[in-house]
Design a protein that fits this description.
alpha/beta; globular; Rossmann fold; six-stranded parallel beta sheet; 286 residues
């Protein structure tokens, strides 16, 4: 029952109609018998600053931050975790006695998904990353932190890929990091040696699930793990192509689950087994 001591958690973004987070967190709060409630806060851009002041005023325990505020929220924080600062985006806020600290749990989400669900060790591997947006930044930092030997950043806008590559070279000098344009000879040549592909773009996302994948099917093979961060549909065209080529593939559902579980741990101190979250999300997305 909600009372004066109930801790407030929530999701801030705009719009929020598609989010699974309230269901997942509130189900876990009920199961763990915790005195918290998780609420959606759809905040329009012109009201964002006022909303952040309001969250401080009512002493929320924690917040998830989603599109379009992952970067815009940083000036409203008292502290930022070093990896979140490196990415330049925050998706989780923890309030400790009035001090708002920003984290990016997407990093742990994608790394844990690859390690546990893909049964794949990133250390020493050759990685190709498609896209150069917010999800790409988290994925790139994640694999470089895990010791990837090389990382090729591929994007339609080569300038954006080059910007990321140059930035990351300064942080990870031991890794071979390069930017490649999509659909050129060098891009295709590199695919022959790549061991892990991460597609962080929205290509193949519902309602445009039948769009052809960015990677030609003939380059996908059994020695490769293919990760598509889209999770609706649960099997994208890229994943279908990977399966046909003998490659193992994952969608982005694991990343969603593991980043949420990490946020829940930061707020409550509870380590949650992911089984119940898997069941809930898969049932909702059927």
């Amino acid at each position: 029952m909600v009372d004066i001591n109930t801790g407030i958690l929530g999701l801030v973004g705009y719009p929020l109609g598609h989010s699974l987070s309230p269901l997942l967190h509130n189900a876990t709060i009920e199961k763990e018998k915790l005195n918290y409630i998780y609420l959606p806060f759809p905040v329009e851009e012109k009201k964002f600053a006022a909303a952040m002041e309001g969250f401080r005023a009512i002493n929320v325990r924690g917040l998830n931050i989603t599109i379009p505020y992952k970067e815009a929220v940083i000036p409203f924080l008292d502290k930022v975790d070093p990896l979140a600062a490196r990415i330049g985006a925050v998706n989780t806020i923890v309030n400790e006695e009035g001090v708002f600290t920003g984290y990016n749990t997407d990093i742990m989400g994608i790394v844990r998904m690859i390690r546990e669900d893909g049964n794949f060790s990133i250390r020493g591997k050759k990685v190709m990353l498609l896209g150069a947006g917010g999800a790409a930044r988290a994925a790139g930092i994640g694999v470089l932190e895990e010791g990837a030997a090389s990382l090729s950043v591929v994007n339609r806008s080569l300038a954006r890929a080059e910007k990321l590559a140059e930035e990351w070279k300064g942080y990870y000098p031991a890794a071979e990091i390069e930017a490649l344009p999509l659909e050129n000879r060098i891009f295709r040549e590199n695919l022959k040696e790549v061991e892990l592909i991460i597609d962080s773009t929205s290509v193949g996302m519902a309602p445009h699930a039948d769009v052809a994948p960015l990677i030609p099917a003939e380059f996908l093979h059994e020695k490769m793990l293919v990760v598509d961060l889209v999770y609706n549909p649960l099997e994208t065209c890229l994943m279908q192509a990977a399966r046909a080529g003998g490659a193992k593939s994952l969608n982005g559902l694991g990343m969603l689950i593991y980043q949420g579980i990490e946020a829940f741990r930061l707020w409550t101190g509870r380590e949650i087994e992911p089984v119940s979250w898997w069941k809930l999300t898969q049932n909702m997305l059927k």
